Amino acid sequence: MSTGFPSAVLAIVRKDLRAELRSRDVISVTAMFALLSILVFSFALELDKVAREEAVSGVLWVTLVYASILGFNRSLALESDRGVLDGLLLAPISRSAIFLGKLLGNFAFTLIVLVVILPLMHVLYNKPLLSGWLIVTAVIGIFGFCAIGTLLATMTVQTRAREALLPIALLPVALPLLLTAVRATNGILRDTEWQVWLQILCGIGVIYFVMCWLLYGYVLEE
Amino acid sequence: MPRLLRVLTGVAILGFALTFYLGFFVAGRDIEQGEIQRIFYIHMPAFFGAFTAFGATVLGGVIYLWRKSDIWDKIALAGVEVGLAFALVNLVTGAIWARPIWNTWWTWDPRLTSAAIMALTYAAYLMLRAGIEDPNRKRAFMSVYGILAFVSVLTTLFIIRVVPETIHPVIVGASPQNAQGSFEATSGVITALVPSLLLWLTLMPITLIWHRVRLENRIEAVRRLKLSVLSE
Amino acid sequence: MRPMKRLIALLLPLLAINGILAQEEESQVPYFQSSAFNVPRLGGWEDQSTDTVAQFYYSPANATIRTAMAPEEDILAAVRQDLRDLVGTALGDQIYDGKVNLADGTWRSLIFEPDEVTTISVMARKAGSQTAIISFVERDPALRTVLLTLAQADDSLEDASPEIARAAKIIAGIDMKYLAPVEITALLSGEWIIYEGDGFTAMGMVFGNDSYVALQEGAPGDLTALVEAYNRTLLGFFITPDNSGYLALALAAVFAILGGLILSFYWRWRHLRQELAMIARLQAE
Hints:
- The complex is a heterotrimer.
- By secondary structure, chain A is mostly helical.
- Chain A is built from nine helices and no strands.
- In chain A, 46% of the residues are buried.
- The relative contact order of chain B is 0.18.
- The longest helix of chain B has 44 residues, at 188-231.
- Chain C contains five helices and 14 strands.
- Chain C has helices at residues 2-16, 75-87, 161-172, 223-236, 244-284, and strands at 31-33, 38-40, 46-47, 54-58, 63-70, 94-102, 105-112, 119-127, 130-138, 143-151, 183-187, 190-197, 200-207, 210-218.
- Chains A and B meet through α7, α8 and α9 of A and α4 and α5 of B.
């Protein structure tokens, strides 16, 4: 018996979300981390109002990146401990469906973090963060980052050092994506040129998504 | 040592001596930048040498994933070690050039940043590799990572087209107006740069990768021997 | 061995991606180059340069532009020593002496008139323990030509008119308050304003915070050509920086990194040999 591709993807996403709704293991940790991070940055930059306004997009992306790294680690470590990945591999579904399912799950969690921190930063940093294009940029950037994160977290969760290795492997690879995302966000906030950065971001996002999709099959255990 | 490798090694050493002679004794002094301009005959070829070595990593990774033969993973690993050394040569010589010309060792210019990210990515490759125990898993994972990491190389190569506000001089094609401290303009381009570029692009990385692959073969043979001795 | 050959075959098309086209760019301005300094060569002037001195002669005005590096720290002594052979007489006291801050340092601006015929305009600055000297010597009996670089009294100047008037007053005692400029001409060195009065021509240009002024008394000569040549020399003059120390440092770094890579191969290789020896010992026991 073989399951259709879209339904397999949906099934995996639904499984992840349902498990998460029940335990709230991932969301509670990442959302809490994101909140703390924003507050810490806010205090750290409190004395210098100009610096705080200049640093907004940096703070936003650093927070999103570390919160999602925490989330990837947590979600895949739980799966690995419970043997869910092995189970999925035994099921008659394609590996790219597993990738898409895991990616969409991670994407959803990170979006929730975004939903929590954007309004908060809007208030704390006194910048118009709730604008349409900024949200589009954030969503595209997060999607690309989650694609790399899903692939690399599946790899690192099977290594000895596990949590420690993910940021080391992920950050340098994701930096071209993050730099463009920060540039685009900065451009939108300061109303300088940002369209070209958003286009580059889309391009890099697509490249990473396709690469990760193609390569994902090789990082699942044989 | 196979005869071809012996020949390659000899030619590479002679070639290095020759390009060194051409760049540091034959090519004229740049009147605007002074002697330091000569480092460019190593600086830019080193980047392209790293490009070749990391290219070997990508090819090794792709072929390993396809054919599952260990030798290609060894080539990929060798490419990372050699390419990282070349990338380091590129970064360090660039910084030392920038000190008298830009009056700073380092600046967060797009091209400099992406070159630094490139080096970091491959340093992460080595750390990640050391962290995976199961040999088959290690090979598959590192092939995947080696392919992903190449994006950072391409970014460094092409960022100048995308982000024109760099102050780094462009060598290939037209230089943007704001490039500070041009590298070109001396007759050394043909006499010293082209031979050096060819050497760093082909002979040096291939020879070093080959030596590193032979070392890896030896390492594995000894490991296997040790296991068989211990299991007796 | 076979995979290595295959790798070489596979890498070659990859190299084609680079498509390196390093174009040789001819430098636009022909330069006089010496180990001490560089100045543009003056087209149309007779080249009398030696290995260490750049000297160009223009017969219509009997004028010489000379650039040299004198091994003497005191600027006045250096200028006197440098021009002794060219002028043939003692320079006497300077009739003008001022300081100008240019991008590459503080220059001393000097005017000498050793005899009736000769007028000498000099720019000189310290370069290490030496003195760089750019001098304009004019020996046409019918003319008196002075080329002067002035630090502006007022930084906000838009054109050189007030500075031309100031220089005319200082050098020639001419009052040109009621004169209007006759022409504005664009030369390679910039936009010059030209005044013509009774028996004299004056030109001026503002560049940065400095004014470049030229005065010519007597029969109308080709002042523009002289101005252009002198200012191209002045603005085009530079000293090649001595950074061979950095080059040595960079080379040391290159050798250290490549040597480190090769040494690490060698050490690992030796370590393996030791291990093999140990295994052989274990097997023998």
